[in-house]
Amino acid sequence: MDCTTTKFSLCKFAQDLKFDTYSPQKSSTSRKVPCSSNLCDEQSACRSASSSCPYSIQYLSDNTSSTGVLVEDVLYLVTEYGRQPKIVTAPITFGCGRTQTGSFLGTAAPNGLLGLGMDTISVPSLLASQGVAAANSFSMCFAQDGHGRINFGDTGSSDQQETPLNMYKQNPYYNISITGATVGSKSIHTKFNAIVDSGTSFTALSDPMYTQITSSFNSQVQDKPSQLDSSLPFEFCYSISPKASTNPPNISFTAEGGSVFPVNDPIITITDSVSNPMAYCLAVMKSEGVNLIGENFMSGLKVVFDRERKVLGWKNFDCYSVGNSRSNLPVNPNPSGVPPKPALGPNSYTPEATKGASPNGTQVNVLQPSASFSPKLRCNRNVLVAAALLFLVIL
C-alpha cells in the first residue's frame, strides 16, 4: 500500500481514472504496529520496542522493492450468507509503503497489493484467525471482462477440479505440479512446478516448457505471423484479418492427480490508435528458472486457495453468479465503479511474487517493453486483479 501523496492514472486511452493513496493520518481507525508486536519480523531494525515496525520486501521484477512501516486498519467486508448481506469489519495489518523502486514507480499496482499469501500476517490468515471467515480458505473469480470476486472462507464445491499444493517451508507460495499440457490437437509430455500468482498479469514459463508450449501453439495457428515492435514481451504474435475469424488453438494443463486446468483466454489482442484489432499474441512470457501461472491463464475460472486442505481447486464459473449462496448481493456489472483493465506498458505486468519464490530461490527475468512501443493493447488484463474486484465478501 503506497502511503505517499502521489496519485496515479492507468489505461488513459480508455478512461482517465485516478487512484488516491492511503493516508494513515486521514483514517480514524489507523494505528502503527509497534516493534514489540509479534507481527513484527524486523525487530532487529527497530530503535526501541515502541518504534514503528519496519518492513522491506523485494519483488521478482528487476530492482522492484517496497519499504515502509506496518499499519493496522479496518477492512470492510460484505457477507454472502443469510437473507440480507451484512457489513462486517475486521482489523488487518499491511505494509504502508514510504519508498518504492522499480516497477512501482511506473504503472504497476497503482492502488497497492492485497496480501493473499500463506503468511500469518496476510489478509486471509488474519480473517481466519479472528473467526471472521468460516475457514482458512478463499476463492478468486476471474471474469473475462475484467471484473471479479474474492470470497474469504470459500472452500469450493464438490464439482471442482483440484490438485495438491506443494508445501515448502522456506517459500510458502501457491505452488502446484503440472504433469502435462495439451495445445490444440497436440499433447505435450512435460513436468514442472508452477506458482499460481493472481498478482501477475501474464503467465511466465521457463524452458523447456516455454518452448514446448509456444512452439506447439505456433505450429497450429492459421493466421500470419505479425512483426510487431521487438520490445513487446511476447514472442508469438499474429495478424488479424478483417475477412477471417481468429481461432487460435486451445491450451490446457494436466495437474498432479489428473485434473485438467483449462486456459480459457491465452491470447491478448493488440489494437491501433482507434481501437481496431490489428493483431493478437500468445500472452506467455519467457522466464528463467521460475514458472508463474498468471491472471490471464485463470480467466473464466473460480480458483479456490484452500490452505486448510492444502489444495488448489478450480472450475469454470460466471463471476456475476453467487453460486449456491442465498445472498441478495447485487452482482450486475457496474463499469463506473470498477477500474478498467490496464494497457500493457513499461513494467505494467509486474509479477507480485517476491524473490525466493521458487524452491531453489531463482529470480524470474522477463523481457521488459520499452516506452517507445506504439501499438496500444486492448485493456484486457489486470496489473493487480484485486484492483478490479467487484466485491470483497466473506462466507
From TrEMBL:
GO biological process: proteolysis
Pfam families associated with the record: TAXi_C, TAXi_N
Pro residues compositional bias, start-end: 332-343
SUPFAM superfamilies associated with the record: Acid proteases
Any one GO MF annotation of this record: aspartic-type endopeptidase activity
Coiled coil (residue ranges): none
Compositionally skewed regions (Polar residues) per UniProt: 347-361
PROSITE patterns: ASP_PROTEASE, PEPTIDASE_A1
Peptidase A1 domain ranges (all copies): 1-315
Region (Disordered): 330-361
PANTHER family associated with the record: ASPARTYL PROTEASES, OS09G0542100 PROTEIN
Sequence similarity: Belongs to the peptidase A1 family.
Record protein name field: Peptidase A1 domain-containing protein
Provenance organism: Zea mays
Lineage of source species: Eukaryota, Viridiplantae, Streptophyta, Embryophyta, Tracheophyta
Gene symbol of the encoding locus: LOC103633615
